[in-house]
Automatic annotation (TrEMBL):
It comes from Metabacillus flavus. Keywords: Aminotransferase, Pyridoxal phosphate, Transferase. The gene is gabT. This is (S)-3-amino-2-methylpropionate transaminase. Its cofactor is pyridoxal 5'-phosphate. Gene3D superfamilies: Aspartate Aminotransferase, domain 1 (3.90.1150.10), Type I PLP-dependent aspartate aminotransferase-like (Major domain) (3.40.640.10). It comes from the Bacteria.
Length: 450
């Protein structure tokens, strides 16, 4: 779809909307409501039938451009050929003996790759699980085992998953935590810089205050010698794509090093090229002790990993970490193909290019549209914040309205943020310039019509 600067559609190429809804969708939705709890949410009440790259087709034959990427799981795009072929080959060999029963080489090979790719030149070890939340839970287990300490510290607006320890670390109450308590003890939260909502304070002032609050926390809540780990997203994902300064991240890391506290980088959403590097923490000049990863590690196939300093990872005794399906042969083969794909197709460089194109649009929007409070990005992890005109006050109703209109025109897009007023871009890194611009022009048209 190619448009002029403020709305008129000239040509539709990738998006093709035949019917907003229809009998097929209605019938499937009826079955969903009858047999699935209401709890699982949906960005769009559509049923996918097939997808490739950055394009998706639903049950009515409508074709969309995917700017949500399975909530960041599809950096390699839908159904990449190398991954699909590797999975077919693996299915002919064996499906799942369980690594805890009989070993297989792909598990070792993937661990070797991640040990090489994760930040730092030190000796690392890796083991595998199924989801980002499981990776976080196990990173905490390892940190406690390695240090002999009890407390774990996360940050306001952080999101670390939906299992109990992960929920405890997560900051947003609704919809993630409401009514599910009590949560695990010895979990604490500290402020995380949000420069757009700093009431006129400079970045330096915001950082200084946040660092000062850590020192106060040590004196008033938990002494540092009782803290096993700090866990931090390099860029807060569900929190609104909030990007800290390198200074802040480095200072937190320095405090950890000074006090024997392990630094865990939650790279579940920022990893595997989303920010223009293999891992988001590489932008900040910090080498974490432990890294958690999942989402785009295997093109949407469920697998997660915990990678860390060898001496830390070896703190757990035999049988203390793992899981029946952790590091399945299919997941390992898929992940190895994704790594090859990122290298061969230069998707790290592509991520930065995608981010630059998105930035060229949001710079225009922030100048000309009073309800676009800010645009921000790290690589292709980009977002715009919707606010009351001329202010920093979040406007969730307008955000919902804009997203509904964008969906109706064939672009899959999601919100984020503590107030639900951030529109986030998670395009597959294999998206072409033509596809990307068509989707951005759809968004452009909706924004200028508001």
């Amino acid at each position: 779809m190619v448009q002029n600067g403020e709305g008129g559609v000239n040509v539709t190429k990738f998006i093709s909307l035949k019917a907003a809804s229809g009998a097929a969708t209605a019938k499937l939705m009826e079955r969903r409501n009858q047999h699935v709890p209401r709890g699982p949410f949906h960005v769009m009440n559509k049923f996918i039938t097939h997808a490739k790259g950055a394009q998706v087709t639903d049950a009515e034959g409508n074709k969309y451009l995917d700017f949500a990427g399975g909530i960041g799981t599809l950096n390699a795009g839908h159904c990449p050929d190398g991954v699909v072929n590797a999975l077919k080959e693996q299915l002919d060999l064996f499906i799942h003996p369980s690594f805890h029963v009989m070993l297989y080489e792909s598990y070792i090979e993937l661990a070797e790759e991640l040990n090489r790719l994760a930040p730092g030149d030190h000796h690392k070890k890796t083991f595998f699980l199924n989801s980002g939340a499981e990776a976080v839970e196990n990173a905490v287990k390892i940190a406690r085992r390695a240090t002999g300490r009890r407390a774990v510290v996360s940050f306001e607006r952080g999101f670390h998953g939906r299992t109990y320890m992960a929920m405890g670390l997560t900051s947003k109450v609704k919809p993630y935590k409401n009514g599910f308590g009590p949560f695990p003890p010895d979990v604490y939260k500290l402020p995380f810089p949000y420069y757009f909502h700093s009431d006129g304070q400079s970045q330096k002032e915001v950082d200084a205050k946040a660092i000062e609050q850590i020192e106060t926390f040590f004196m008033t809540v938990v002494p540092p010698e009782d803290i096993a780990a700090f866990i931090m997203e390099p860029v807060q994902g569900e929190g609104g794509f909030v990007i800290p300064s390198a200074y802040f991240v480095q200072q937190v890391n320095n405090i950890c090093e000074k006090n024997g506290i392990l630094f865990i980088a939650d790279e579940v959403q920022t990893g595997f090229g989303r920010t223009g590097k293999w891992f988001g923490m590489e932008h900040f000049g910090v080498i974490p002790d432990i890294v958690t990863m999942s989402k785009s590690i295997a093109a949407g196939f469920p697998i997660s990993a915990v990678t860390g300093r060898a001496e830390v990872m070896d703190a757990a005794e035999v049988g203390e970490i793992g899981g029946t399906y952790g590091g399945s042969p299919l997941g390992c083969r898929a992940a190895l193909e994704v790594i090859k794909m990122i290298k061969d197709q230069k998707l790290l460089e592509r991520s930065e290019k995608i981010g630059e194109i998105i930035e060229s649009y949001y710079l225009k929007w922030t100048k000309e549209l009073p309800f676009i409070g800010e645009g921000r990005r790290l690589g292709a992890m980009a977002a715009i914040e919707i606010t009351a005109p001329g202010s920093a006050k979040p406007d969730k109703p307008l955000t919902v309205n804009l997203l509904n209109k964008i969906h109706e025109r064939g672009v899959i897009l999601m919100s984020a943020g503590l107030w639900g007023n951030v529109i986030r871009f998670l395009c597959p890194l294999v998206i072409s310039d033509e596809e990307l611009i068509e989707g951005l022009e759809v968004i452009n048209a909706v924004l200028y019509e508001n």
